[in-house]
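User: Could you go from structure to sequence for me? I need the amino acid at each position, not a summary. Structure tokens:
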């Protein structure tokens, strides 16, 4: 709850900042998982479908592939966020990193005269990511008995170790 409150208060402060208002930038945020479990399952099913679709398309945008992969790696975790512009995901990451970027807004908001909000945000995010360690777990559903032989980390581009995960979920009965 503390992270959510930090996130909310920082976003409210940024949304109300005069620079944001003068640039006519609107921030809208949603909380996934605060709704019904069925809605959350539907969300993750769509993310898996997008991942598998992009995985098999050679011409798919690499940045989009990486953001979908990062998002899928957060499926079994709490505390993640997405910065999107309309339907396009710009950055996917841990909420703790997003909070650091939001807390640094006072230091990067002046760049918005020369850059778009999302570009300035990405730049600050990239600088913070250089100082943060990461460990990604990616559970990929096997389709038609096929799974990729290799997978690169969406965060650092190194080849990921491969593990097999099994999962059983039961709702009573």
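Assistant: Here is the amino acid at each position, in order:
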């Amino acid at each position: 709850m503390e992270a959510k409150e930090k996130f909310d208060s920082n976003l409210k402060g940024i949304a109300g900042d005069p620079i944001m208002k003068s640039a006519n930038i609107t921030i809208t945020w949603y909380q996934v998982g605060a709704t019904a479990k069925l809605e959350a399952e539907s969300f993750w099913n769509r993310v898996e479908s997008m991942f598998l679709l992009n995985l098999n398309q050679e011409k798919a945008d690499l940045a989009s592939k990486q953001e979908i992969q990062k998002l899928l790696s957060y499926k079994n975790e709490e505390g993640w966020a997405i910065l999107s512009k309309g339907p396009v995901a710009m950055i996917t990451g841990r909420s703790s990193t997003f909070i650091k970027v939001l807390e640094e807004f006072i230091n990067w908001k002046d760049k918005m005269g020369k850059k778009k909000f999302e570009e300035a945000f990405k730049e600050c995010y990239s600088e913070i990511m250089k100082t943060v360690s990461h460990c990604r777990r990616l559970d990929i559903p096997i389709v038609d008995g096929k799974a990729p032989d290799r997978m690169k980390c969406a965060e650092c581009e190194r080849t990921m170790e491969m593990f097999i995960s099994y999962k059983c979920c039961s709702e009573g009965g």
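One structural detail worth keeping in mind: The mean pLDDT is 82.
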